[in-house]
Structure formats: C-alpha cells, structure tokens
Amino acid sequence: MLNRHWTPRGATDFIVAGGVALLLAGTWWVMDIRRWALPWLVVLGQTAFMLYFVHQVIALSLVNQVLGLRFNNRLVYSAANVVLIAALVGLGMAWLVIKRAAHRAMPRPVPVP
User: Fold this and answer.
1) How many other C-beta atoms lie within 10 A of the C-beta of residue 17?
2) Does pTM surpass 0.85?
C-alpha cells in the first residue's frame, strides 16, 4: 500500500503481461494464419488520435455532464460500449474520407527548374 492506494506487483503484473501476450498471439493467429480481415481495427488504428479526442468529448461531456447518465448496470454499460465503438468506427471511416478528399484538394507544389 502506498498512500492508501493499491499498487500492482508480482502476480498481478504477471497476469496482465500474460493476458496481453495471449491477446497479441490470438490476434496474430486470427489475422495472419486464418487470414481474417478486420478492417474496423485498421480504421481505429488510422484514426486513433482523432477518435481519442472525440470519445472523450462524447463520454465525458455529452453522456456524463449534459445527459447525466450513469451506467451502474453491467449489461447496460456493455451495450453502451458496443454502441460507442460502432459510432467511433463510423466516425473514423468518415474522417478518413474527409482527410483523403482534403488531401486531394490541396494544390500540388510546382517543381522549381
């Protein structure tokens, strides 16, 4: 205990590291060996910074402060997370389309002879 806060060590560190290693190995197996495409995961990776900001605005400002919603029920909380992830994937796809259109609209530099 440090300042009356629990600090992880020992077995907890091992369990967390083992869980991450298993998830990484499972993802590699699904994507590389089984050849399953997970395009939504690519969208989340390509738009991570923008989505991190937007999800903070949605979760903290809109849901918590404006609507005053609290998710004390595990089932409702899980359903809200699935809806939020689906919305963020849709926002990420829209962001990629907007970003590509803006990139195409930018004038190309003319090479100097």
Assistant:
1) 10
2) no
